[in-house]
Specification:
The complex is a heterodimer of chains A (282) and B (473). Chain A is α/β, with parallel strands linked by helices. In chain A, 28% of the residues lie in helices and 30% in strands. Chain A folds into two domains: 3-89, Elongation Factor Tu (Ef-tu), domain 3, CATH 2.40.30.10; 100-257, Rossmann fold. Chain A contains eight helices and 17 strands. In chain A, the strands form four sheets. A seven-stranded mixed sheet of chain A has the order 12-11-10-9-13-14-17, with helices on both faces. Chain B folds into three domains: 16-138, Alpha-helical ferredoxin (Fumarate Reductase Iron-sulfur Protein, Chain B, domain 2, Orthogonal Bundle); 145-244 and 401-472, FAD/NAD(P)-binding domain, CATH 3.50.50.60; 248-398, FAD/NAD(P)-binding domain. Chain B is built from 18 helices and 15 strands. Chain B is globular. Classes of the chains: A alpha/beta (282), B alpha/beta (473). The interface between A and B is large, with 45 and 43 residues.
Chain lengths: 282, 473
């Protein structure tokens, strides 16, 4: 069973957008859930956040970071088929009327979740506030891929201030809290920032729901690779998450566990880059 | 009365020093001549008495198929086996025969039991290699009815595959919904290549496709499609989702790096072929000194896999040698290959280094009491003495429980406290028209018991659909 690629385009020098036909997944997907794809027969199972699930297609934002994500970028084009696409996996978030809903993100998957979550939250009658953080002006996505259209209030930040507000989403969140504008905050992206966000909102008791990205194999609760400590108990990010109450997550362990396969990941990436160089692709 | 031959005809095996270097199958199986010789040892107990038939969970007519081997008629031997078991190439390799058919074999009372497992495997392999299986399959397809109803099967493991095969033979249109990208369930992700080559599993699945069974991989029932949606489209549903969730130890350090559940370790290796990394993309990080916790078949599989990745491996078990639950053949193979065993050690803490990787396991020393538990194992108690073993990789193989995805979504399904599905004597769950079998109802059992359930459920599903049809007519 093949899953045809229907669109692929650059978002920035490091990220790209890809859209894949998978009607069985698109039909059932709800915000908060993720998918798992495999590029080809020898590929790994790659868990991925969803930007859009419409018309039988799954849209994703992907960073050219590991072998699979680079392979999908360099070797697959519109019309080609992925080997596998399964989902939706994980638990959906509760979409209802909260009041002021914030989504903050500072990395590729988080940016996808930002749009997807706030779209649903806006439809549910919330006042939506989107904060999207990028490293610098060059890394900012094209206008049509930002979460602006689904945000009643929108903030863009860059680390160096080359465009938008200088700093990252934590600075904006702080201000919003001071103005008493946050009823609930969702966030996705870099684990380190999420851990800081949890500490920032904790004293105010603001509900903080964040994606906890962990290394997965199957994505269905079968292997326990993505286990985290949550309120002192073991939970699987794939089955019980991937979005959790950030105040109950043991972030120190999460940060350590995310680095378990660094050596192997580097080896696969270097080997693949060499192959690409030899073929003159990069 | 044939003359009793006490000793088994040995099956050829690859020597340990050769096999620890690769994942190729260890046991080479009988040749035609050797199989005939071994078949001669069967005393041909009459069907109504034969203990082996009673000892087999699916009651294969063992003396009859062995008699056909003696005659050299492998096609008839296969036909007899297929009456009760459509996956003999698998069960011949993975059944715990010593606890079933061979355990009660009359010959075993004076010598070693007839090697029923290897004879079963021989029939399956020989028939496949010589086109006999294909012939028999074509006969079966030619005689098959169709259009008797539509059934959805959840999970393409031993229970689901068997149920689907039986229903297809009876004339039903069957669709299997499988969560992973490959079919086979535990046969594919759990049992290693050196014990059950994946080509054999694929061959069995092909057989089902030829019988008209449709397999939809990448479909998680409970997520991609709900049970209710299936019931709207199909006349009945069979749930064979297995026991796919690992039990982990509730002790400090469980989140440290390089501590794997056996499921993660084996899935990376078997399903994702991590032993061929970086040719295949899925990695596995294994150190030089591996500790496997547990002593069942899964523990042996994990230990022998780690050995093949170049590690020194120790199995640590909280009970004694005689309490190990693995098949005797697996324990024997593990020992021959150099796996070390430590008994009466119960893990109490994982100790990590600065990077968050495991560097040692602290165990409490245990001792056995004379008293026995429900399963007939000696009870154990802690001694208050501790020992710390250095390691760089830990694999936890202490058991599995059912995956909750389907029961969390389909709240009408009644569930036991241990997560297994409640079923009646016909294997029907609390939702009419929804049946279940295998580890989803048993917790953690064997391939053959799951297949037995699949077969029994197929009959019950057939009756259920027929009755409903009569009632509505």
């Amino acid at each position: 069973m093949g899953y045809r690629i229907t669109a692929k385009t650059d978002l920035s020098p490091i990220d790209y957008f890809v859209e894949v036909e998978a009607p069985h997944v698109a039909k059932a997907w709800k915000p908060g859930q993720f998918v798992v794809f495999i590029t080809n027969e020898k590929g790994e199972r790659v868990p991925m956040s969803v930007y859009k699930a419409e018309n039988g297609k799954i849209g994703m934002f992907i960073r050219k970071l590991g072998k699979s994500s680079m392979q999908l970028y360099y070797e697959f084009t519109v019309g080609d088929e992925l080997y596998s696409m399964v989902g939706p996996l994980g638990k959906p978030i509760k979409v209802k009327h909260y009041g002021n809903v914030v989504f903050a993100s500072d990395a590729v998957c988080g940016q996808a979740e930002n749009y997807a979550t706030l779209k649903a939250m806006k439809e549910a009658g919330n006042y939506t506030i989107s904060i999207q953080s990028f490293e610098d002006a060059a890394k900012v996505y094209p206008e049509e891929f930002l979460a602006k259209p689904v945000a009643d209030e929108y903030y863009l930040t860059t680390d160096d201030g080359s465009v938008g507000i200088k700093g990252n989403y934590l600075d904006v969140v702080k201000e919003l809290i001071e103005k008493d504008k946050v009823d609930i905050i969702f966030a996705g992206g870099k684990l380190g920032t999420l851990a800081k966000l949890a500490e920032l909102t904790r004293p105010y008791g603001i509900p903080t729901i964040t994606t906890v990205r962990q290394i997965m194999v199957d994505g269905t609760g079968m292997c326990g690779s993505c286990r985290i400590l949550y309120g002192g108990e073991v939970r699987f990010a794939c089955r019980d998450g991937p979005m959790f109450d950030a105040h109950k997550v043991d972030w120190e362990d999460v940060l350590k566990r995310a680095n378990r396969f660094l050596e192997q990941e580097k080896l696969a990436r270097e080997r693949y880059l060499e192959e690409l160089r030899a073929r003159g692709v990069v | 009365m044939p003359k009793l031959i006490k000793e088994r005809v040995p099956t050829p095996e690859r020597p340990p020093e050769e096999r620890v270097k690769s994942f190729v199958e260890v046991n080479l199986g009988y040749t035609f001549e050797l199989a005939k010789q071994e078949a001669e040892r069967c005393l041909q107990c009459p069907v109504e008495y034969a203990p082996c038939i009673k000892g087999c969970p699916v009651h294969i007519n063992i003396p009859a198929f062995i008699a056909k081997i003696k005659e050299g008629d492998i096609k008839e031997a296969l036909r007899i086996i297929w009456n009760d078991n459509t996956l003999p190439a698998v069960t011949g390799r993975v059944c715990p025969q010593e606890d079933q058919c061979e355990g009660v074999c009359v010959v075993g009372k004076v010598g070693t039991a007839v090697n029923i497992g290897k004879l079963e495997r021989f029939v399956a392999d020989y028939a496949h290699e010589h086109g006999i299986e294909e012939e028999l399959l074509e006969e079966m397809i030619a005689g098959k009815e169709c259009g008797k109803g539509r059934v959805a099967v959840v999970g393409a493991g031993p229970a689901g595959l068997t149920c689907a095969g039986e229903l297809a033979k009876m004339g039903y249109d069957v669709a299997i919904f499988e969560a992973l990208h490959k079919s086979g369930g535990v046969l594919t992700y759990g049992i290693p290549e050196f014990r059950l080559p994946k080509s054999i599993v694929e061959k069995e699945i092909d057989k089902l496709r030829k019988l008209g069974v449709k397999i939809l991989t990448d479909h998680v029932v409970g997520k991609t499609v709900t049970l209710e949606e299936l019931l709207g489209e199909y006349d009945a549903v069979f749930i064979g989702t297995g026991a796919g969730t690992p039990r982990l130890l509730n002790i400090p350090g469980i989140l440290l790096g390089r501590i794997y559940s056996a499921n993660e370790f084996l899935t990376r290796i078997n399903l994702m072929k991590a032993y061929e990394f970086p040719e295949y993309d899925t990695p596995i990080a294994v150190g030089k000194k591996v500790i496997v916790i547990g002593a069942g078949n899964t523990a042996m599989d994990a230990a022998r896999s780690a050995l093949r990745l170049g590690s020194e491996v120790t199995i640590a078990y909280r009970r004694g040698r005689e309490d190990m639950t693995a098949r005797i053949e697996e324990i024997g193979h593990a020992e021959e290959e150099g796996v070390k065993f430590e008994f009466f050690l119960n893990p109490v803490e994982f100790i990590g280094d600065e990077e968050g990787k495991v560097k040692a396991v602290k165990f409490e020393k245990m001792k056995a009491l004379d008293e026995r538990d429900k399963r007939g194992k000696r009870k154990i108690v802690g001694t208050g003495e501790y020992v710390t073993l250095p390691t760089d990789t830990v694999i936890i193989a202490i058991g599995l429980e059912p995956n909750r995805i389907i029961t969390e979504e389909a709240t009408g399904l009644r569930v036991n406290p241990n997560g297994t599905l409640v079923v009646d004597e016909n294997l029907m769950t609390s939702i009419p028209g929804v049946f279940a079998g295998g580890d989803a109802i048993r917790g953690e059992a064997t391939v053959i018991l799951a297949m037995g359930d699949g077969k029994k459920a197929a009959k019950a599903i057939c009756d259920y659909i027929e009755e409903r049809r009569k009632a509505s007519a």
